[in-house]
Design a protein that fits this description.
365 residues; alpha/beta; D-Maltodextrin-Binding Protein, domain 2; 2 domains
Length: 365
């Protein structure tokens, strides 16, 4: 039966991440006051004299790098303050459509109903701003480098594999001593783009095992496990109980000292969610005319990490406030250029240059 799990780290992500606040001490990037990329439109700069405060909300997947972006962006636009609250993709989109924030972050693009709620798709700029892997995180103190095939992952999260020494897990981990510990599944209780990406992967890679309904940001009902809010909540649940397993952006299990499973890809290789693995996977994605991506969870590249995704920045083309409009365009352009340099050090992957160029042109309009 599903239940809510107490959040150990809620305060870290439920509050705004403010420029000059939390983040690493890596200040090697020297932001420019005018961000451009080859072949893309020039974006109006937010000069030192410009004053604006931008508020954003959404994806917890992007929270770690968003914190560092905000910290370092202050050097590029001292008069602009950016706040970001990691509340989940679904809540972020809801706040964007209700116009209680200036921008949203989501791991999945707007669907038709959400676009309609903004007054029409043409009212909102929507660009991919960073990429990353959805990690399958686990808590097994005796097992390092756990390997999982798609059908095994799907079987675990569907509640069909309930013990760590199940034959399917043994087959993926020949020669590894596996405990008879029961498996405890942790999932997102809130509306989450990470959930949508993860379940879309399960549906694509193991359709005979993962038979739950259409794509959705909500975890499917009828599955066993513990529901927790945010990626931090899922990671806290996994951290708290030996034998647990969950899913989140890579930085969360890394910071918590949890294991991260190697996932078997189409080429038969077990791959970790590294920046290189994510970049290899994205080469198989289809870029739609509106700059949303149709992800390929069965990439041909043997180096590809299959549960890879982009995450999106969304904001209104016109807010009615010229200072805010200039600031959000400049912030977006900075993220798409200087901000990409921070990706690998924070367990993300920079967007491919071909996509960045198109995104910059979109921001420039």
């Amino acid at each position: 039966m599903k239940r809510s799990f107490p959040l150990m780290c809620a305060s870290a992500l439920a509050v705004a991440l403010v420029a000059g606040g939390c983040g690493t001490d890596n200040n090697t990037s020297t932001p420019s006051s005018q961000a451009t990329t080859p072949g893309a439109a020039t974006v109006p700069s937010a000069g030192a004299s410009d004053k604006a405060t931008l508020s954003g909300a959404g994806s917890t997947f992007v929270a770690t790098i968003a914190s560092e972006w905000i910290k370092q962006y202050k050097s590029a636009a001292p008069g602009v303050t950016v706040n970001y609250t990691a509340v989940g993709s679904g809540a972020g989109i809801q706040q964007l459509t209700s116009k209680t924030v200036d921008f949203g972050g989501s791991d999945a693009p707007l669907n038709a109903d959400q676009a309609a709620a903004t007054g029409g798709a043409g009212n909102v700029v929507q660009v991919p701003w960073i990429a990353g892997g959805v990690a399958v995180e686990y808590n097994l103190s005796s097992v390092k480098n756990l390997k999982l095939s798609p059908a095994t992952v799907a079987g675990i999260f569907a509640g069909k594999i309930t013990k760590w020494d199940d034959a399917a897990i043994k087959a993926d981990n020949a020669g590894t001593s596996l405990p008879s510990t029961g498996i405890q599944v942790a999932f997102r209780s809130d509306s989450s783009g990470t959930t949508q990406v993860f379940t879309d992967y399960l549906r694509a890679a193991a359709p005979d095992v993962w038979t739950y309904g259409p794509s959705s940001k909500d975890w499917p009902s009828g599955t066993p496990g513990t529901g927790s809010k945010g990626s931090d909540g899922v990671t806290a649940a996994v951290k708290q109980a030996e034998g647990s397993i969950g899913y989140s952006e890579v930085s969360y299990p890394k910071q918590a000292g949890l294991g991260t499973a190697l996932i078997k890809n189409k080429g038969g290789q077990f791959v970790a969610p590294t920046a290189a693995g994510v970049s290899a996977a994205l080469t198989g994605a289809t870029v739609n005319p509106d700059l949303t991506l149709k992800l390929n969870y069965l990439p041909d590249d043997p180096a590809a990490y299959p549960i890879s995704t982009t995450t999106y920045l969304m904001y209104y083309k016109s807010s009615g406030d010229v200072n805010k409009d200039a600031a959000i365009k400049h912030f977006a352009a900075w993220v798409l250029t200087d901000g990409q340099k921070l990706a690998e050090g924070l367990d993300y992957a920079p967007m491919p240059q071909s996509i960045l160029s198109k995104a910059m042109s979109t921001v420039g309009t």
